[in-house]
Structure formats: structure tokens, C-alpha cells
């Protein structure tokens, strides 16, 4: 079997396992972005969509992804709505509005699911992680320590959240630097624990975290430059090797180096496949051990941006 035929066979197997994206305009066979990362397809099935009967919500501003206990996909809108997606078609099947303990909407950014189904949602305005039950009712909150929360900059607070291991610590990332910190350093807050510092590539902020299942964290770093477009890096952090509270980091790929797969963009993008990638979750593993990862871009409810899903294979370096 040729290498091309083997790759085609692998993609067919993944599709049969329910990992295929929804409708896509990809017309070019995928090739790796780096030795560790390959975007195998993309889908614009959610772009411009609305969902609901008596009340309609735009399926937009998606900033977080997670897999529920039953295998359904959860997509979090920063407009305080949690959508459930069919894991095969990626179509929305339900919508749950989220409010905090006072009944106010959230500036929701990241989501993770604990073993009992509890949803952990970061709120950028509250600078906290809120716990919700499956019906969308608030069950509690994880507050950021005052020495971190009091120095957080507006609109640069909590973004990604992950459960590092079953029953293990919850980790949430600050998007930007704290007042008084080295401007190149970001704080990762943990419950329990003292947290860590993390240094993304220069000029990039942290937008999302996902646990790899072996104690490490995938990290999305990104920025936007007008007239140029989005820069999106996928990195790996290893808490087990932290020194003096600093997380070691390995760059896995600059997603701008990935093939465009025939994608188009309405705004200027060096790679038309990219947009404002903010959400990420791990779907599972392939038969050869690669992580099956799903990314989503936040369109900021801007008609010149795109809500796009990306299916990604990530081959982790040895731990």
C-alpha cells in the first residue's frame, strides 16, 4: 500500500468512527503542518447559523469546546449560551442559556467537563470558574486568588480551562499578563495548588487549554494583526517538569504553516484557513496513538469572520 493510500484509508476509518467533520469546502488533500500536527479537515457548518424555536440564539462567538459524558459535543458562546452539537454532523441539537448566581449573563470563555458531568465555565467578567449542572444551574464557583484577580487587566482575564486528570486539579489560564508581571508571562491558576507561570511565543496570548490525558496540556496561543490576519500556535505544556513554578513549553505547530485545504476567508488572512481560533477539545485517539483534536474559531459576531471547526491530529512528543 502506498503512503497516500494508507493516509486515505486512515481518514476513512476515522470518519467511520464518527470523527469526520460536517459539510466542508476542503478540496485539497491534507499534509502535515509540522512533524507533530496535521489538520485533516474543516467545516463551516455552524457559520451564520441560528438555533431555537420560541427563542433563537446565533451560533456565534464560540470560545470553548468540550466533550460531554455521553459523547456529545459542547460549544460555549461568549454570549452566555451553551450549545450541544451532534458529534457526527456537528449540527446544534440544544441550547442552554447560562447565568451567574445573580441571574446576570456571563462573558463565558472556556469550558471543561468533570467526571460527574459538572460543567466548569470560565467567566472573564467574574474572574472565576463557575460550576454548572447539566441543566445549566449554578452549583458553585472557584475564585481566583486575590493577588491574581486584583492585577488582571480588563478583557485579558480567564480564558481556557481544563481538568488535568480525572479527579485531579482544575487549571485555568489568564489570557494576558498581570499588572506588575513580566509582560511575556501568563498565569495558570490551579484548584488546588499554587498555579504556574507560562511563557507563550512573543506577541501571543493564551486562548485555550485541553488536557492530553497523560498529565500534560495542549495550549492555543494566538493574536490578530489588522491587514495580516490571525497567528495561531499550538503548544504543549508539561506540569510534571515545572521548575520554580514555570511550565516548560514545546511548540507543536504554527497553524499558519498548515495547507489552506481550499478554504476561503472574507477578511485578510495570510492563510485563509485560519480565523480567531479560541476553542479546543480532545475527542480521543487514533489507533496509532495520535490525539484527535477539535478546534473552533470565534467569529466575534462579525460578518467578515467565520465560525469554523477544524479536525486536527496531534502526535505528542515523548513525555
Walkthrough of the structure:
With 319 residues, the chain is mainly beta. The protein has one domain: Tachylectin-2, Chain A (5 Propeller). Helices cover 6% and strands 40% of the residues. It is built from two helices and 22 strands. The strands form six sheets. It has a four-stranded antiparallel sheet with strand order 1-22-21-20, with no helix packed on it. The longest helix has 14 residues. The chain is globular, with a radius of gyration of 18 Å. The N terminus is likely disordered. It comes from Actinomycetospora succinea. InterPro entries: Phytase-like_dom. This is Phytase-like domain-containing protein. Keywords: Signal.
Counted beta strands: 22
Number of H- or I-type helical stretches? 2
How confident overall, as mean pLDDT? 91
Task: Indicate the CATH architecture.
Answer: 5 Propeller
* Strand-residue proportion: 35-45%
Number of domains: 1
Class from secondary-structure proportions = mainly beta
Distance between the termini: 32 Å
Amino acid at each position: 500500500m502506498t503512503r497516500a493510500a494508507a493516509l486515505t484509508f486512515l481518514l476513512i476509518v476515522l470518519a467511520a468512527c464518527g470523527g469526520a467533520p460536517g459539510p466542508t469546502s476542503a478540496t485539497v488533500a491534507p499534509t502535515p503542518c509540522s512533524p507533530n500536527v496535521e489538520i485533516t479537515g474543516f467545516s463551516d457548518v455552524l457559520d451564520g447559523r441560528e438555533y431555537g424555536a420560541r427563542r433563537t440564539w446565533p451560533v456565534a462567538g464560540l470560545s470553548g469546546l468540550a466533550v460531554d459524558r455521553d459523547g456529545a459535543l459542547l460549544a460555549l458562546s461568549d454570549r452566555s449560551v451553551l450549545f450541544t452539537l451532534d458529534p457526527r454532523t456537528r449540527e446544534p441539537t440544544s441550547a442552554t442559556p447560562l447565568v451567574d448566581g445573580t441571574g446576570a449573563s456571563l462573558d463565558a470563555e472556556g469550558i471543561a467537563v468533570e467526571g460527574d458531568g459538572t460543567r466548569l465555565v470560565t467567566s472573564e467578567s467574574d474572574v472565576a470558574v463557575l460550576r454548572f449542572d447539566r441543566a445549566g444551574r449554578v452549583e458553585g464557583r472557584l475564585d481566583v486568588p486575590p493577588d491574581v484577580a486584583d492585577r488582571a487587566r480588563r478583557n485579558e482575564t480567564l480564558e481556557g480551562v481544563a481538568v488535568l486528570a480525572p479527579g485531579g486539579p482544575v487549571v485555568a489560564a489568564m489570557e494576558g499578563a498581570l499588572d506588575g508581571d513580566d509582560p511575556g508571562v501568563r498565569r495558570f491558576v490551579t484548584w488546588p495548588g499554587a498555579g504556574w507561570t507560562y511563557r507563550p511565543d512573543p506577541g501571543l496570548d493564551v486562548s485555550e487549554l485541553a488536557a492530553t490525558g497523560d498529565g500534560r496540556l495542549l495550549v492555543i496561543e494566538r493574536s490578530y494583526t489588522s491587514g495580516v490576519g490571525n497567528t495561531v500556535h499550538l503548544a504543549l505544556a508539561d506540569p510534571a517538569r515545572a521548575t520554580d513554578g514555570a511550565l516548560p513549553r514545546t511548540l507543536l505547530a504554527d497553524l499558519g504553516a498548515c495547507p489552506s485545504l481550499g478554504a476561503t476567508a472574507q477578511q485578510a488572512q495570510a492563510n485563509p484557513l485560519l480565523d480567531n481560533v479560541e476553542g479546543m477539545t480532545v475527542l480521543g485517539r487514533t489507533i496509532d496513538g495520535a490525539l484527535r483534536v477539535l478546534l473552533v474559531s470565534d467569529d466575534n459576531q462579525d460578518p467578515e469572520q467565520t465560525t469554523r471547526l477544524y479536525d486536527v491530529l496531534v502526535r505528542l512528543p515523548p513525555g
